[in-house]
Amino acid sequence: MGVLSDEEKKRIIEEEELRAKIRRKYEQKSTGIAAVLSTICPGLGQIYNGQIGKGAIFFFIILISLSLIVTGITFWIKGVPGKESAGIMSEKPVEMTEEGIVIEEEEEKEEEEEEEKVPRLAVALIIAGIICLGLDGNFAVRDAIKTAKRLNES
Fold this sequence. Notes:
Blueprint: H1 6-27, H2 31-40, H3 44-48, H4 52-78, H5 106-116, H6 120-153
C-alpha cells in the first residue's frame, strides 16, 4: 500500500476541516426555535434538540398539571366525592305544623351556606396544577435554550 506524501496529507486534512465546518453549520440548533417550541408546549424544544426522553418527561408533567386543574374545576362544580350528598336517603324527617307549614331550623340554613362555599380541595388542586404548569414551562424553556447553546459549542 502506498504512503501518502505530505502534500496529499495536507490536502485531505483541509478537505476534512471544510466538511466538518459545513456539517457544524447545518447541525447548529437555534436557541430561538428551541425557546419558541418549548413555550408552545414544554418538551418540544427538547425534542428539537434531540433529547426525546427529556421532552417526553416535560410533556408528561404538563399532562399531570392539566389533569390536576381539570379535577379541581370538576370538584368545584360537581362537589368533592365522598361527602354526604343531599339526597333523599340522607335527609332528616321534615317537621311540619298542623297546618302543613314546614318548620325550618337554623341548622339547615347553615348546611346550605356550607354547600355554597368552594371546597378547599378543589382550590388546592387548581393552584397546584397552575404552579406545576408554570414551573414546568419555565424550566423547559430555560433548558431548551441552554441545551441548544451547549450543542452549538461542542
